[in-house]
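agent> Task received from the user: take the single chain below, predict its 3D structure, and emit structure tokens. No templates, no multimer pairing.
agent> Plan: (1) validate residues, (2) run structure prediction, (3) serialize to tokens, (4) report one or two observations.
agent> Step 1 OK, no nonstandard residues flagged.
tool_call: predict_structure(input=
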Amino acid sequence: MIKIENLNKRIKKHHILSNVSLNIEGIYGLIGPNGAGKTTLMKILSSLISMNAGTIEMDGKSIIKGKYVKQNTVIGYLPQDFMIYPNISLEEALDHIAMLQGMMNKHERKIKVHQAIKEVNLQGHEHKKMVELSGGMRKRVGIAQLLLGNPSVLLFDEPTAGLDIEERIRFRNLLRDLGKKRTVVISSHIVEDIEFLSAKIAVLKNGHVLFEGTPTELKALAKDCVWEYQVEIEALDEMSKYKQVVQVNEEKEGINIRVFSSEIEEGAKPVEPRLIDGYLAAVKGMS
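)
tool_result: status=success, residues=287
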């Protein structure tokens, strides 16, 4: 478990994170709008940037030195955009990274590299150049280079951004497998990714924690705030102008639309909230 208490980060007089306190374990989701402070938090945890105040503990022991997370802490961070050595093969890239990490025995290094390739399901692609790999494959190479260091915590910033549907599904399954043995933190604005993977979720907005809890608890924030209309397709554009439409489904009888509203919607029936509805309730301050 990673325990964060009263973490603050500011640049000049601008507060990026304000008194952030979280208890991170298992597969943990960070969601929030752009500018919420998610990436800043991930960079602090990975020791890339400093914090101004606060404490961070892993398994009950402090992992900060001064204003930085200790660099020898076993935390691996994969940023949103990952590309290394575009004109050499996947295997050569990982071998070079392993050398930079201090693995000088060629035989042991080869075993370690092949283990990492296997764990991210890239067997058969070892000799492809990095530039020839799809976006999803490059992200898996990014995970493989993290695994060379045998981290106990993995941090992912927008891991499925830019991936097509099939790659997104494969990547989600890989993250779920990785979470069986490690703590995995996923920062994303794609609520569906978090819903699929995370057993615990935090919602950030403007550097503040608005919610921390289970997906079920987040959904409960939107109780009695989600309504369903059945309309003709011609009415959809007009309704979208003055109602917060969160989902549209086309059916034989017409168009079903889900609307988020804290007030009773005449002519609509109340429906069970989904995670996106709970997220909207949190960011709107309805919790």
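agent> Step 4: summary for the user.
The CA atoms of residues 16 and 40 lie 8 Å apart.
agent> Done.
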